[in-house]
Structures are given as structure tokens and as C-alpha cells.
Amino acid sequence: MTTQDLYAKLDFRRTVVNRLMLGLLGLASLVAILPLLFVLYYVIHRGLAGLHLSFFTALPKPVGEAGGGLGNAVLGTLILVTMGSAVGVPIGIASGVFLSEFKRSRFANTVRSSVELLAGVPSIILGIFAYALLVVPMHGFSALAGALALAIILIPTVAKTTEEVLKLVPDHIREAGLALGLPRWKVVLRIVVYGSRSGILTGVMLGVARISGESAPLLFTALNSQYWPRGIFSPISSLPVQIYTYAISPFDDWTQLAWTGSMVLVAVVLIANLSMRAILGGKKA
Amino acid sequence: MMVKEVKPVLPPVLSTKDVHAYFGAFEAVKGVSLDVEPNSVTALIGPSGCGKSTFLRTLNRLHEEIPGARFEGEVTLEGENIYGRGMDPVKVRRKIGMVFQKPNPFPSLSIYENVVVGLTLAGIRDKRLLDETAERALKHAALWGEVKDKLKAPGTSLSGGQQQRLCIARTLAVKPPVILMDEPTSALDPLSTARIEELLGELKKEVTVIIVTHNMQQAARCSDRTAFFLLGEMVEYDRSTAIFTNPQDRRTEKYITGRFG
Question: Is some CB atom of chain B closer than 8 A to the CB atom of A191?
């Protein structure tokens, strides 16, 4: 066999293997996005039928009565997520900045491992934690306890993404700031963090989207309610918990509400995500 | 060591006495003493790893920002020891500016904002003062003509050479009497390099420049004095004409004739 024959044979094999591998990769990607497409299709298909204005404005009706909506759950989720974010976002961003800008200290290493561990703790455990911390001593389920559970879930997510985004800022940018005679905290806040604000905001949005869909930590804390929210010390309804309750109920009206609720939840998360991308225009932090 | 004493005509604006700089246990700079004349350009040359950049970074106390870094010795700026007790590195750096090897304008800021950032972040809000400072600094850095119509464009939209002049303008805006430059042209094309070299001659009318360079022609062309570093020591320090035409030390001669390094 001449060298040329050998090369021809190798070339052929290379081409075949190359095509095969490309095909496999394409297939794997397709498998990865198929669930999203199915979920979207199914949720819209089943949920659209129940989408009326009353879904957002009315309370659930008793079994057997037609109509009604999940207005209390929509409002409840809004309240829970707002409260949870108000606590979780500042703490998360501050820890992320600390982790990225003061990475040398031993304390930072401890915090970093803790944040990673916390991010890996199943959300239901964090719900039980909030239960023990607030629900038991306060003798009752409350929106406050639910918001706290959500905040605890939010902190590691935001801290981690903030740290990652800030680590992308090259050190020579920090040195340039220091060399101008700026104090370190100003370099960190006004140059490093300010320059990465879009990346940090993306992390915050992703975290908030995630907690708005959490149900497990709310089961033990905010519980659920059939009424409009009555303050932060009372149980409060939320979309995920309401979906869970209604989806396993035997009544058709309720199941329909659960489908529509799912659709609304998915839509909110999706719209938040997409609009975030549109605003940032695919710009890297 | 054959360090020839150079008697400066004017009292030095900056002088170092027995400067040692360490990274952990490694001694990168081994006892360097030199005096820098005001309104001059001093070049630090030497092979990679000879400690010239580290030495430069001890002069504005940026060396200590690196984990494990340590410093011994004395650096005097206008008669004041910048490593003295209670001396704030932030204050030192307002008086000793620095331009880096890679142009590093702040990516989120416009050209204008980049130039005046040292002032705005120090709390100066006076719009007229900022405008005047920006124009003067940009003119001084020979960039005004190219950017005056697009001051709001991002600093990073400029070419590499323009970015480096923007960084020089940003440093000038704080009005430091001394500016350190760490291989400011090594990432630039020959034309941009030539512009910055021209600029050095202009700059020294108002400031004192200490420049690290790998380019010996650059040192010979633009500097008044040259210090040759080798393995952490300053081998020779003299008028540049003397260093490049009649070096006293064999090692200096070998280096500038390209026989090692």
C-alpha cells in the first residue's frame, strides 16, 4: 500500500467519524431542548382554556361552583418573591463581592465553601429550617417564614454568580484604579462592580426566577390560603403551592386552574429571562 | 557592584535607598538606590525577570497589593518617605501615577469619563473644572484632536495606541508630579509607539517619567538617564548617552549589544 492510499483511507475514516460525532452531538442537543418544547406546548395547550381576566382577579371558588381564579396566589407569589429578594439580593451581592475582591482571606474560603454547600442543599430542607426558625417559635405559618426560606435559597445563587462575574474583571483594571490613587473600596464599587452591573443583574434575575417557582420550601412556611393575603404574619397563597394543591385534587375546575397557573408561572419566568436578554442585548459583563 | 555615582544637577524629585522587594521568600529586587531628577525621563532596562517592573511597582506602593509581597528600604518623594509611618498608599498614588503595559481604560466608561475618573471618584463634581481638566489632559496626551468629537464613545472603542494615550491622559488628569510607565508601548504597533515616544519629550516639561522598557532603542532615544537591571540588582545607572555609548560594566555592554538577555 502506498502512502497515498494510506492517507486516502485515513481521510475517509476521519470524514466518517467526524460526521458521526457531529450527528451525535446534534442529537444530544435536540434531546436537551425537547423537554422545554414539550413543556411549553403542553402547558399552553392545557392552560390556555382557563386564561381569563378573572384568573388574576378572583379568589378560588368552592368545589362545584364555576369560575374563580388564583388572584390570591398570583399576588401572594409577588409578595413572597419581593420580600425574599429584598433580603436575599443585597446579602447575595455583598457576599459575592466579598468573595471575589477579598479572596485571599481565610474567612473568604470558609464563606465560599459554605455558599457552595448551601447552594446544594435541597430546597425542602431549607423550608424545614425556616419552619424550625420562624414557624415553630411564632406558633404559625406565615408569609414572613416563606420569604425567609426563599431568601436563603436566593443568597447562594446570587453570591455565586456575582463572584463569577466579578472574577471576569481582569486584575489590571483594579490596578489601574488603585494607581489613580483611589481607595480600594471605591475601585471595587465604582469600577469593578459598576462595570459588571449587567452580569450581576442577570444573576439576580435568574435567581429571582428560580425562587418564584419554588414550592417545597413554602409548604412548611407560608403554607397556603384560600383568601387574599392578610399580612406577613399570616399564611399566604403562592402559585407553586396552589398548583401543587389543585393538580392533585380530583376536581376538573381545580385541575384547570392548576394548568393555567402553571402556564402563567412558566410565562412569567420565560418573559423575565427573555426581556433580560433583550435589554442586555447579549452583551457580556 | 559598579554603580557609578551620578551627581544630579537638581535635587532629586524621587530617590530610593536600598530598596528590596520580595515575593514570599524570593527576593526580586536586591537593594536598589537611585535618584531621579525632576523633569527627566529615566529608563529602566534589563532582561525579563530582572526586577525592573517590580522595582517600578514599589515606587507607587502597588507591589504590596500582590499576595505575599514584601518591601524593605526607603523611597522618598519630594523629601517625604512614602513608606513612612501613617503614610496612606492612596495618597502616594495620587502623586505617582502609573501607565501599564496593556492599555487598560475602564470598559464601562466613556472616553471623557475615563479621563476624569480619578477626579469624579474623588468627589469632584464641578462640571467646568472636569471639562477643563479633560481637555487639557487629552491635549497633553496628544489625543484631543482624535477624540474631541466623540468624547461620549466608550473608551474601549479606541485603537490600542489611542487607548494607551487615553490611559496617559487619565493619569495626567490627577496631576501627579511623577508618572511610572511599565512597558507602555510593548503592546502597540510601531506607529503608535512612535507617537508615545514623541509624547515623552513633551510630558517631561511638566512631570517626571520613569519608564520600564524592553526596547533599547526606545531607552536610548527617549530617556535622559538609564538604569540597567540584572538579576534583581541595578548594575549601572548613568546618563543614557553614556550607558549606550560607553558602558562602564561588562554586563551592561554585553546586554546593550545584544549578547545576552
Answer: yes
Q: Which residues of A touch B91 (CB under 8 A)?
A: 181
Exposure string of B40-61, with b = 16+ CB inside 10 Å and e = fewer, is bbbbbbbeeebbbbbbbbbbbb
Of the partner residues B67, B100, B106, the one whose CB lies closest to the CB of residue A195: B106
| Closest-CA residue to A64 (of A211, A270, A253, A216) | A253
The angle at the Cα of B256, spanning B254 to B261, to the nearest 5 degrees, equals 70
Q: Which residue has the higher pLDDT, B108 or B93?
A: B93
Contact between B93 and A177 using a beta-carbon 8 Å cutoff = no
Q: Do A180 and B91 touch (CB under 8 A)?
A: no
pTM for the full predicted model: 0.83
pLDDT digits (tens, 9 = 90+) for B108-137: 899 999 999 999 998 899 999 999 999 999
Cα separation, B229 vs B30, in Å, equals: 10
**Sign of the C-alpha dihedral, residues B158, B164, B170, B173?**
negative
pLDDT at A285: 40
Spatial distance between the Cα atoms of B175 and B137, rounded to a whole number of angstroms: 9
Q: How far is A91 from chain B (nearest CA, A)?
A: 24
A186 contacts B121? CB cut-off 8 A:
yes
A285 to chain B: which residues are within 8 Å by CB? none
A106 close to B (CB below 8 A)? no
Q: How far is A182 from chain B (nearest CA, A)?
A: 6
Closest listed residue to residue B213, CA positions, set B235, B237, B236, B193: B193
What is the spatial distance between Cα B160 and Cα A167, in angstroms, rounded to a whole number?
Answer: 24
Look at residue A104 in the predicted model and tell me its pLDDT.
Answer: 75
Nearest of B88, B111, B107 to residue B170 by alpha carbon: B111
Please report how the helices A252-280 and A239-247 are oriented relative to each other, as an axis angle in degrees rounded to 10: 150
> Is the minimum CB–CB distance between A179 and chain B shorter than 8 Å?
yes
| Nearest-angstrom CA–CA distance, B261 and B255 | 6
Q: Say whether B121 and A182 touch across the interface (CB within 8 A).
A: yes
Pick from A8-12, A205-209, B33-37: least confident: A8-12
- Write down the pLDDT at residue B4: 53
DSSP B148: T
Which residue intervals of B96-207 are DSSP H helices?
111-120, 127-140, 144-147, 160-173, 190-203
Residue recorded with cell 456575582: A162
C-alpha cell at B252: 551592561
Q: From residue B150, how far is each of B113, B142, B147 by CA, in Å?
A: 12, 15, 5
For chains A and B, CB pairs below 8 A equal 68
Question: For residue B250, what are the CA distances in angstroms to B2, B242, B247?
Answer: 10, 14, 7
Q: Give me the pLDDT at residue A18, please.
A: 94
Q: Rounded CA gap, A155 and A153, in Å?
A: 6
Q: How far apart are CA A245 and CA A254, in angstroms?
A: 9
Helix (H, G, I), strand (E, B) or coil at A116: helix
